[in-house]
Amino acid sequence: MNFTTKVPIAKNKYPLDYNSKIMSLGSCFAVNMADKLDYFKFESNCNPFGIIFNPVSIEKLVYRIIHSIIYTEKDIFFHNESWHCYEVHSKISNPDKAAFLKSLNRISKQANQQIIDATHFIITLGTAWVYRNIETNEVVANCHKVPQKHFKKQLLSIEEIIQSLENSIRLIRAINSKANFIFTVSPVRHIKDGFVENQWSKAHLITAIHNISKGQLSFVNYFPSYEIMMDELRDYRFYAEDLLHPSQIAIDYIWERFFETTISEEWYSTMEEIADIQKGLAHRPFNANSESHRQFLLKLQSKIRDIQNQFSRIEF
Q: Of 284, 74, 136, which is closest to residue 83 (Cα–Cα)?
C-alpha cells in the first residue's frame, strides 16, 4: 500500500562526479543543496554574491561577471549606516565604502574564473515576483530595507523568464562550451507575496524552465524539487517551524532524490567513505585519552589519507 505519490525523475544525461566543478546560483534552497555537496566533498561554489531569488537578477550578475564590468561608486548607495548594492545580497554590505567596492570586484573576478572552470551549473529559482527601482527602472536583487515606496512590484511573465534564462545560458556557454545546467524551483513558500500569488509565481518559473529544457537543449535538465515537496512530502510535518521552509528531514529527502538521479553511481562508494569520515570527525568520545579512542583516530586518519590520495584537493 502506498501512502504517497512518487515523482518520476529521469536520470541526468550528464551526471555529477568527483571530477565535476559545480557552481550553484539562486535561492536559499540552492544553499541547502550546496551544503550537501560540500559535506560529500564535491568541488562546489555557491552564490558568490549571496542568495538571489529571481532569474533577472541572476542574469544581470552573470552578465557583469562574464564581461568583467567593474563595480564603481555609481553602483552602490549608503543606507542605514552601510553601503549596499542592489545587485547583491545584504550579507556583502559594508560600512566602509572602499572596502565594499574592493570586495565586490574581488568576488566578481573570482566568480569569472569559477564560471569558466565549471562543468555544471545548478540554478534554483525562488520567485517570479520582482521589485523594480522606480528611479532607474532596474530590477533589484535585494531592497536592503529601503522603503517600499521606491519600488514597483511586478510578476515576471513566462516570456520574460524564458528570455532571461536563455540569456544566462548563452552568456555562460559563450565562455564555457562544456557547461551543463540543472534548473530547479525552490520548494520554499513565498507566502509574503500571497498564497495564490506564490503559486502563480512558481507556475511561471516551472513553465519557463520546461519551455527551455523540453528536448531543445540536451545540456539543460530539470530537477523537480518543488514537485517533490508538494507531492511526495505533502504534510506540514516536513516543514520547519515557520511552515514555509522545508525541514531538515525534507531537505535530506530531496537530496536523496537528487543524488540518486543526478550523481554518477560510480561514485556512491566514495560518497559513503566520505560520509563515514565526516561522522567520525563529528564523534565526541566519552574518554578522549582512552586506547580505544586512539585506535579510532588512527583508523580515521588512514581513511582520510586514502581519500586524499585519490583527490588531493579534498580537505577535512
A: 74
